Amino acid sequence: MCGVFGAYSNTDCVAEEVYLGLLALQHRGQESAGVAWIDAARRVNVEKGMGLVHEALDQKSLSRTKVTSAIGHVRYSTAGGSLLQNAQPICANYAQGPVAIAHNGNLTNLTELRSSLESRGAIFQSTSDTEAILHLVAHQPAKRPLDALLYALERARGAFSLVVLLEDGLVAARDPWGFRPLALGRRDDNYYISSESCAFSLIGATLVRDVEPGEVLLINENGLTSYRLGIEADRRWLCSFEFVYFARPDSVIEGRSVYRARQEMGRRLAREGSSEECSSGGDPDAADFVAYLPDSGTTAAIGYAEESGIPFEAAVVRNRYVGRTFIQPTQRVRELGVRVKLSPSQELFADSSAILVDDSLVRGTTAGLVVAMVRECRARELHLRISSPPVKYPCYYGIDTPSRGDLTAAGHSVAQIAASIGADSLRYLSKDGLIGAIGLPGDRLCTACFDGCYLDDPAEAVPSGCGVCSCGGVF
Ligand code: AMP
Ligand code: SF4
User: Fold this and answer.
1) What's the DSSP call for residue 150?
2) What number does the ligand 2 atom closest to the CA of 179 have?
3) Which of 136-145, 190-199, 372-381, 382-391 bottoms out in mean pLDDT, i.e. has the lowest?
4) Would you say residue 472 lies in a domain?
5) What residue's CA is closest to ligand 1, atom 9?
6) How far is the CA of 308 from the centre of ligand 1 (A)?
7) Above 50 in pLDDT, residue 471?
8) How confident is the model at residue 324 (pLDDT cuts 50, 70, 90)?
9) Is the minimum distance from the CB of 359 to ligand 1 under 6 angstroms?
10) 194 CB less than 6 Å from ligand 1?
11) By CB atoms within 10 Å of each CB, which of 61, 128, 134, 207 scores lowest?
């Protein structure tokens, strides 16, 4: 998962604003960052580097870059290629002029696209699907760049929320299924495109609306022009995990506040007697307090505490100077990372009964270790609450989830997971609870990592269809 940001102005210099936008999107990717612009000589320029935005980019030099349009990207860490060559935006100066692309999402037909492009002589520098879009554009030299881009995007399947720089102007595009969010913001006559609306307030802009699924928006001196991709989706597939974990709580996606959705997930989790639940003893209703795993479980824990009437305590402290632990090469390093990052308060947990809330359980590393650490604090009872359904299936739309074998809920019952983690009880939010909390109709949301219903039939999906998707009629 990544973050993209674009800015267009008739008057102001915007490269530094793109830098600021990327800072606000830092939670969407910490591996690398980049900013691209087109200079007066019609050449595309890019500055990119590894690490966090402030490490990868030079704010001072961007503030001196006198351009009225620029795009930027923060890249999400993946298990494999943590390399500068994978950093974005990807840029080229082809027959029809300069082009720069920053992409959030994954194409599901990359293999087909790549082999068809390679059979026509394309030489790929990376394994990235963004490069495939660039090649598709370059293979249409007779078309003007915007038409070539529309042509390319109509051949792509899966998830793409893009910002693109062409000589024609700044372009924003979202796949017809609407997997990843993309928002349009405005300050006076300046327009901004961002993966999330949370980036707008930092630059004094306000959210205008979402870029619509299947919409391609051109922004230039003539204002805004909206085009439609010639592909009609049967239904929408907005990623429900954006509401669970990825998006910042102060973002609004399709009119829904991420904060309110998370809080409601916590409330429903407290109310629900879900089938995704087991208990080996104790009384969660009589718990002394509700604690969260910082920072991901915070908002749901607030909702849980409100609904249950059990007081809320910040009983697990996070070392904010330690980075991510989720995608580390080995389990040992991941475990060490969790221990360094999270620390339960001995004072609060000793001899108490506590509810512990986190947003998701993927491999089970974080919850397992925190429960063990809380046990070391001599807690009497520990009830683990997860504000999303069990993650049983990998994501093919831009999230680096482990393979099925590493997803703890794929091969284990709720009782087995509770036992292996060492919790007295474990409850997940149901899928209906999740959809209800988000507040959008279920057929507008992707829930594939929870239910295996994919847009396309990936290798690991259950064979034969239910008529709507590829879940095999199981769900
Ligand atoms: P795990 O420790 O493998 O069970 O992962 C669950 C923890 O990682 C939770 O605390 C989540 O907040 C966080 N998380 C879930 N999905 C992701 C993801 N795709 N990337 C990074 N962190 C994640
Ligand atoms: Fe989001 Fe899960 Fe769908 Fe991936 S599979 S797009 S993480 S809901």
Assistant:
1) H
2) 6
3) 136-145
4) no
5) 360
6) 25
7) no
8) low
9) yes
10) no
11) 61
Residue 433 predicted with pLDDT over 70: yes
Ligand that lies nearest to the alpha carbon of residue 357, given by its number in the listed order: 1
* pLDDT tens digits, one per residue of 46-90: 999 999 999 999 999 999 999 999 999 999 865 446 788 889 999
More confident residue, 321 or 214: 214
Please work out whether the CB of residue 388 comes within 6 Å of at least one atom of ligand 1. no
* Confidence band, pLDDT 50/70/90 cuts, at residue 470: very low
Q: How far from 161 is each of 38, 54, 195, 229, 324, CA to CA, in Å?
A: 21, 24, 8, 13, 24
CATH number at residue 372: 3.40.50.2020
**Cα(10) to centroid(ligand 2), Å:** 37
Query: From CA 56, how far away is CA 33, in angstroms rounded?
Result: 6
366 C-beta closer than 6 A to ligand 1:
yes
- Centroid of ligand 1 to alpha carbon of 328 (angstroms): 11
Q: In angstroms, what is the span from residue 179 Cα to ligand 2's centroid? A: 8
Domain for residue 248, yes or no? no
Nearest bound ligand to the CA of residue 342: 1
Residue 443 has pLDDT above 80, yes or no: yes
Could you tell me if 170 and 305 lie in one domain? no
Q: How many domains does the chain have?
A: 2
In a domain, 367, yes or no: yes
User: Which residues are the active-site residues?
Assistant: 2
Rounded distance from Cα 118 to ligand 1 centre (Å):
36
- Among the listed residues 475, 283, 109, the one whose alpha carbon sits nearest the alpha carbon of residue 466: 475
Which one of the ligands is nearest to 240 CA?
2
pLDDT at position 464: 35
Residues near 217 by beta carbon (within 8 Å), at least 6 away in sequence:
171, 172, 173, 184, 193, 211, 224, 225, 226, 227
Evaluate: CB of 242 within 6 angstroms of ligand 1.
Answer: no
Q: Taking all residues of the chain, what is their mean pLDDT, rounded to a whole number?
A: 91
Are 363 and 440 within one domain?
yes
User: What separation in Å is there between the alpha carbon of 396 and the centre of ligand 2?
Assistant: 7
Q: Which atom of ligand 2 is nearest to the CA of 447?
A: 8
Q: Specify whether 193 is located in the same domain as 281.
A: no
Provide the pLDDT confidence category of residue 340 given band limits of 50, 70 and 90. confident
Average confidence (pLDDT) over 305-317? 96
The two three-digit tokens of residue 147, written as one number: 């038409």
Domain CATH number, residue 82: 3.60.20.10
DSSP assignment, residue 212?
A: P
Asked if 315 and 218 sit in the same domain, the reply is no
Does residue 265 lie within any of the structural domains? no
204 class by beta-carbon count within 10 Å (0-12 exposed, 13-18 middle, 19+ buried):
exposed
Q: Which domain holds residue 354?
A: 273-444
Q: Do 229 and 309 belong together in one domain? A: no
The atom of ligand 1 lying closest to the CA of 401 is 19
User: CB atoms < 10 A from the CB of 367, how many?
Assistant: 26
Which atom of ligand 2 has the smallest separation from the CA of 242? Answer: 1
pLDDT of the residue at 282: 85
Q: Is the CB of 362 under 6 A from ligand 1?
A: yes
> Cα separation of 11 and 221, whole Å?
10
